[in-house]
Amino acid sequence: MFFKFKNKKITNMISIVPNNIIKFEDEAGQYNFPIKRTLKMMDIMGYKEHRLFNDSVILSDVAVYGLNYMFENNIINKEDIDALLFVSNCTDHIIPPTSNIIQGKLGLKTDMICLDIMQACAGFVVGLLQSFMLLDSGSVNKVVLINGGTMKSRVSKKDRNSWPLIGESCSITVIENGGNNDVFASVYMDGVNSNALIIPAGGFRMPSSEETGKLQTLEDGNERALDHLTMEGVGVFNFVQTVVPEELKKLMDYAKIYDKDIFAYLFHQPNKFMLEKLADKMGMERSKMPSNVVENFGNSDSGTIPLVTTYNYGSLFEQEEKTVCFSGFGAGLTCASIIMNFGKLENCKLIEYGKNR
């Protein structure tokens, strides 16, 4: 499915990361594998370190911190926010919506809309699409989009397939009407293969219990419980290498914008290996698709696209505007992409939680 929007712009983008850094080699002995074998994965997969918040900190706490930072630094005014979108699977509760909780903690106006959208890897792009639709309503002039993940409690520390990848971050993006350009987008949804990335227990289908919390040793030597993230690595890899390139080509044909016109591919960050293979598959220079987030921060679900943007190009995008391609792919299975002019932002920054106020 394709979308086209007119006169939409991103004016501010802030990524907030933990200051707690964990080295990959410091955790190499916690898995059921020889340490030498585990350390070999560092170069192949691009593992180096990841960042995690303290156990008591959840995503909404970081969002409140980040928005207060923006208020105190006159980046955005409270009364100007017409829509607050929380796009993540790391909600405070099943009920009420986390966006309403954040609205209440910040004392935002009641004449606004708060929305929670359950998305993971593609959440930033899906959130942008929803933001553009709200801006087209005629009543909304400024949208605040919150993305990110605080998933460590849902990933087994004994699962070498997943734990080294996990990172935590929060992003806050401000979207408004304006600009003089077209935005092109596409979405692809494959629920048939949704089990490729799943946390089996914890919802209404299988509520968490003492039984679902028990670690089980799997055939591949990893240990995890039904309460933990399960990733079918081969299935996800094949999806990224086959469906994603095809969908991006269709979007480029729809937009009539091609590789030569695109400054950078700011993609979800599953791991360095997968992104380099994706760049090769699409026949583009690897340097145009930064893949350095997992090795420095970890994979924070819907927060990775803003993080790869602010980490690699923050100061550039405060000065210049470029044509970029955002793409998120993974859980769902989902692929959502946008081609748009991006840049000359008022703020495009990466800050550390607890250090910048």
Q: Can you give the helix content as a percent range?
A: 25-40%
Q: What fraction of residues sit in β-strands?
A: 25-35%
The biggest sheet amounts to: 9 strands, mixed
The first-level CATH class name: Alpha Beta
Q: Could you say how many structural domains there are in total?
A: 1
Mean pLDDT: 95
Outline: globular
Task: Give the helices and strands as they follow along the chain.
Answer: EEHHEHEHEHEEEEEEHEHHHEEE
Main structural class? alpha/beta
* Radius of gyration, whole Å: 20 Å
Q: Which homologous superfamily in CATH is the superfamily?
A: Thiolase/Chalcone synthase
Give the total of beta strands.
15
- The fold-level CATH name is Peroxisomal Thiolase, Chain A, domain 1
Count of alpha and pi helical runs: 9
CATH arch. level architecture: 3-Layer(aba) Sandwich
Question: Could you walk me through the main structural features you see in this protein, from its secondary elements to its overall organization?
Answer:
- The structure is a single chain.
- The chain contains nine helices and 15 strands.
- The chain has 357 residues and is an alpha/beta fold.
- The protein has one domain (1-357): Thiolase/Chalcone synthase (Peroxisomal Thiolase, Chain A, domain 1, 3-Layer(aba) Sandwich), CATH 3.40.47.10.
- Strands 1, 4, 5, 6, 7, 12, 13, 14 and 15 form a nine-stranded mixed β-sheet that branches. Strands 2-3 form a two-stranded antiparallel sheet. A two-stranded antiparallel sheet has the order 8-11.
- Helix 3 (59-72) runs parallel beside helix 4 (98-106) and helix 6 (233-255) packs across helix 7.
- It is globular.
- The mean pLDDT is 95.
